[in-house]
Amino acid sequence: MPELLDRLTTPIEDILLPVAGPDNPNLPAGTTSLPIHPISLWPIGTVTSVLCLPGEIDRERFEAALKRVTAVWPNTAGRYSRAAREGNPGEWDFSIRLTGSPIPVSYQTIQADAAFPTSTVVQPSLDPYTSALPPSFGKPDTDSPLLSIRVTTLLPSRSTVIGVIFGHILGDGSSGNLYLSHLSHFYEHGPEAVLEPSEYPSFFPHIDLPVYPPPAEVLAEYDSGQIRPREISEMMAGYGGAAEKYEAVTLTLRRAELRALHSLISDRAGESRLSEQDVLSGWWLSLLRRTGENIEKMVYTVNYRGMGGTHPGFPPNLRTLSANVAQMRCFPLGPATSSETREELEQISATARLVRDRLLEIRHNPESTLRWLSVPAYRLEQAAIEIKAQMLVPPEDEVMVNSNLRYDWNIAFGFPEDQTAYHTTFSTVRFLRVFQANPKRGERRGETDVELTFSVAKGGEAKAAVERVAEADRARWMKV
Same domain for 231 and 176? Predict the structure, then answer.
């Protein structure tokens, strides 16, 4: 919201906050750099979060908490780097150098009744509540910070907005969520705050790929357009073009509605193993197909932190690893059915079962999973070497699903949890993002609504059609 910049009551204050040395039991003494596994090489991109709090934070206490969390997460004060492998021309080792560099923090005061006009999690823009990283942050050896923080005070309420840009090279959404939770913990509990040993982030090892790079037949089996390297200019043009043609839709389901849908589809499928997200994925695909989309494939973001069991290729620290530990898996879908209610529910059930079967296959077949993961690892390493990127705009016959339903982003910094809000950005065509909605007054954890955000064509009836069909579906679930 650029117009808010006109309401700045004081100039933006930029500081570089000095940090202490590492303080993390998972980091051996004397460690000067953290290796980056090829599958975690996602330097072009960020995990961007805005937290809205109902009161004013204490600056001294916040900066003390930031220093403590940086000691626990020393990679956030590091620098992205690469070094040529001796004796192997064209091959590189990538790392985060633990430079202990100061954290860029900015402060501003704005005259505004609220940070955003709606409580929706996914906003079209997070301006002016975040401070962008330098354009060079995705390139190695540029001395660019990988984290930035902006604190905004809103007047006259003196409520606080904290914007955090967490470089994707540091980790995925799970890592970003844990980092913010630790920052909140250190702020809320002050100098007496402690972490349990199991709560500290780890930095290595990542998965062990037995065959790498992948053979040609493995590459052909698991390759997809989303992970192939693109010129950065092509990526930006792709996102820009999509933004011109498509607009965001956010559908909100009450928990009772989601439970009704889950029960309905689970009963029809004749099994209890379907998750709420499986059912949501099936319903969303049905929704798009019933409003004119011809979808043949689904690209599903799979978090494999808890997978692999005791297989040596999956180290036990994956659950706490500060890295990218989720990748996109593409699989074909069954054909669409007619719009009759019975067949529509069969279609949702079939998609939900297909998603669950593929996830269980990944979970219970670690050798096959490592074969698959070798392909995104190869593509991401290739892009990092060539200073290229990935573009997550699916072709017309594909959809993408990226769910945060399991993550609680309601990070409160000691304030009442039902008075805080979380926001992020990014929506594109046929790309589903799922979040727990921001709480209403009196709601407790796990009771909030669920939000589904994606984009449809601008300028026609697409948005109204999707909303109309969704509303009719929700009413029908509650009557069954």
Answer: no
